[in-house]
Amino acid sequence: MSTDGRLVDAVLLPGFSGETVPDWLARAVDGGLAGVCVFSSNVGPEFTELSAALHDRRAGMLVASDEEGGAVTRLEHRDGSSWPGAVALGRLDDIAVTEAVAAGMGRQCRAAGVDIALAPVVDVNAEPENPVIGIRSFGATPDLVARHTRAFVRGLQGAGTAATAKHFPGHGSTTVDSHRALPVVDADLATLRSRDLPPFAAAVEAGVRCVLTAHVLFPALDDRPATMSAALLGLLRHELGFDGVVISDAVDMEAIAGTVGSGPGAVAALAAGVDLVCIGNPSNGYDDEAGYLEVRHALLAALADGTLTRPRLADAGRRVAQLAEWVRGATVSTDGPAGDLGRQIVRRVVEVRGDVRVGAAPHLLDLTGPENVAAGRRREPWLAAALRLRDPGATTGRQDLPDAGRPLVAVVAGPSAALDTVRDARPDAVVVHVGMPDRWRPSAPSVTVWGDGRAQADVAAELLMGR
Question: What are the residue boundaries of the Glycoside hydrolase family 3 N-terminal domain, all occurrences included (predicted)?
């Protein structure tokens, strides 16, 4: 392999298809590929063997995964996360608990062969209508998010898993999901410094190993999204003093792929100061090898024409290699919190209005609306499985109301006309709210569980079934 080819591969983090190592990926790893980002489609019963096979191919190979707890998990995608998620931790506001949760997640990651958790989300969720952050954030104020950021970073990295503060310099004030289009935030530098940067500063102070960028445009500061902005990434390096690995958010997201394109976006990101380019999830509808080669060829062409310099890529590769060295030397903790910690936390923050106990064979109506792309696709709410575990007669659906007299449970992420219709027809319906509680609370009978994972589903089912 050419010197330029090794320089390029040393800064790439592609996704891949399937639960085994494809031939193209094996060749890329042998050629010096920095690592891979795994998604739900990669995580099957033999995932630890898969991650071991990747690590065995080359010393320093990195495996990254979105492990936030709550709504976003890859390792527990089949059953839902046993960890409560950021919004519940922020609501409880006990930093010792947050650190304990992160430590448990860190141990879970390392046991599965995951080196980098793409967490925590340190965005300040200042926009109530935010379609992609919401319950993934610790809260709506910089101080709250900053103190839980510190604790989360300490917990993850104390367990030997590299933490990743995301999405720099802030995705919490958007009304557009960057998976679907390019968000624009009309904020000046003073607002950014007072509202969005403090949690990132806290992460840097805590020694966070990675920071992941936001595909968000801040027109007052640059005409390029943060991922491709030397000015914004300069704030991270020079103002906040971060010298770890800057990871791009996935360049297959529409904010990049649908505007400049994944290949040119990767070139611009590296030129601006990104160290490791996350290519993305081939399950979104493209060939895994073709997605990798599109970005790789664009970087090689940029080196050839001088758009990218070899010293820039060498510097990025140096940081990635230092991260891999930290992972190899990290002490993996074996002591941890009880396995019930996630449910214990949800029980402490859950809000119950009225009598929410239901009778036999309840029907669950899914009114959660469009999926959050970051959370991934699933057939039904986690609560459906939790109810069936307690009552095999429980059923689920998205539209039809059950016969009068049969217990009805509606799962919602917020207010909607559909919920109003259900409540008009069935005022006895119990509402389980899994969305942003700071925005809205349903009237009785209802349960607000502060997030959307298996821990929340289990607690809601306990309350609904009276056990």
Answer: 61-323
